[in-house]
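Figure caption, in words: inputs first, then the predicted bound structure.
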Amino acid sequence: MSVQTTVQATFAATLVDEWVRAGVRDAVVCPGSRSTPLALALSERDELAVHVRLDERGAAFFAVGCSLASGAPTVVCTTSGTAAAELHAGVVEAHHAGVPLIVCTADRPPELHGVGAPQTIEQHNLYAAAVGWSAEPGLADPAGAAGWRSLAARSVIEARFGGPGPGPVHLNLAFGDPLVGSAGALPPGRAAGAPWHDVRPARPVPAPADLAAAIDRWRGRRGLLVVGADGGSPDHVYGLAEALGWPVLADPRSGCRLSHPAVVAAADAILRDPAVRAALAPEVVVLLGAPWASKVLGSFVAETARRGAAVVAVERWGRWFDPDRVVGEQWPVDPDAWLSGARQAALERDGQPAADWEKHWRAAEDAAQRAIDAALDTESSARAGALSEPAVGRRLLELVPPDAVVLASSSMPVRDLEWFAPALSAPPRVVANRGANGIDGVCSTARGLATGSAPVVALVGDLAFLHDVSALVTPVGARPDSCTIVVVDNGGGGIFNFLPQAASLSGSRFEALFGTPQQPDVGDVARGFGLSVLDAPTEDALGAALAESIGRATLSVVRVPVPGRIDNVAVHARIEAAVATAVRSAIDT
Ligand SMILES: Cc1ncc(C[n+]2csc(CCOP(=O)(O)OP(=O)(O)O)c2C)c(N)n1
Ligand SMILES: [Mg+2]
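Bound structure (magnesium ion present):
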């Protein structure tokens, strides 16, 4: 069958050509008619991996995972109407997390708006403040062909740097009938496959004089480096820590929770005790990168700020991470440049670190780690080896090979890793959808991450798993992904049992509104999608299940049945008490 050459097929092929030139490697396409010109153009390029997903909500989160794996913007292509609206949650997450996406929604031509044409809704400004840039070029017109390459190249630049950091952009593309067509000659591009526009982004670096002045204020004082995601590379973080004699409180997502004398992994557990908080209070806190999930750490920083400590934030894109309004000084600069400049300034100056400061934190960390181990051993013996939720957080990163990526869902899984994972010599990369902290789309993001070369292990709650069950739908013929979803099954939302609602409501009201246990069995659901499911109630079983599933070119589910949410609160309380006793005695408080 011969297919007519159409202007809009040529337009779509030009966009795709320009995206390929600008480094786009993945496209997520959802089935639909109105988006046909773009879907066809995307599928025609071997340079692109085209992932077809049925559910648009999951597709946006899948695209977030693709971009986290590749570092490049991912194109998303949907039809019009509610399909476009379904993307919104993933777009919001990408916006807050700084993940580059090029979201393309197909639309009907302007004359079919407001007249009852099917699947036609207002898509103008659909994602509002969640996109840093958007464009609606209208129906493709040969008279505008000179601008097509510019439009696509700009969308990539805006997705990479426009917000001012990375984030989603939106192209609302009107397509008319006939939707099937073949591309004619594309408008000429730049020589040697270069994109139409390229950008050499300014990477703000701190002025040496400003850093020297800061170091003059801080040298010899009791300081902490609190490092979260994208807060600097380990060598730079440790370099400054050593020069100043400051401990490093490292979130697993920072990549800095490594075996190093400055590293404190158990900050959340250590800082739960008021006497310990007072004894370990700093005079300066430098927050590097994205914040931790820990409320305990956040309130500790706020409390010390109220007592006069200086709080300093270093964030690559100048994003405003300061819910307690305590940051006195912002450095919107490259964290590594800041860290190495600050180290240089520190080395050029005389002065001794604050006496016993690092030693006290080291003692606290060692005591806390031993106390957590002992408490978890006791828990394990009391339940014949069955895993508790904190034990999963403590062990998981050791059971996963260093070349894998671990994605943790909100709410308890990401906290279990943050609170209980020890410093390791070679842990896997840890990521989480912490832009908007949703429990939605986590399995989809995991599958998107699995389009990269690293095997993926997702640690998710049972509700997060059931919320995103459409992620288990795989199209016939899709390329295999290596993704293991570990479901910590505590029969509902574990986080809520820690909140005042749990104590102030009747059990049945609390369960109905907050705990929300669900009818389907996690294993049965996964098996219903044709997946292999392994049950892992003990550490040995979890290790064996992970060894069996990680790296296999398939999606598998490991279910970790844990004792229950009320029991989990009690386990946390026992660990907290054991750590407080151990740390108090270690630092003589
Ligand atoms: C999209 C979305 N809806 C609702 C919430 C509120 N919420 C936070 S935690 C949670 C329960 C999560 O339960 P589960 O996934 O089983 O993890 P657990 O805390 O039990 O480990 C809910 C519903 C949210 N964060 N995001
Ligand atoms: Mg749960």
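Residues 461-463, 490, 492-494 surround magnesium ion (ligand 2) (CB under 6 Å).
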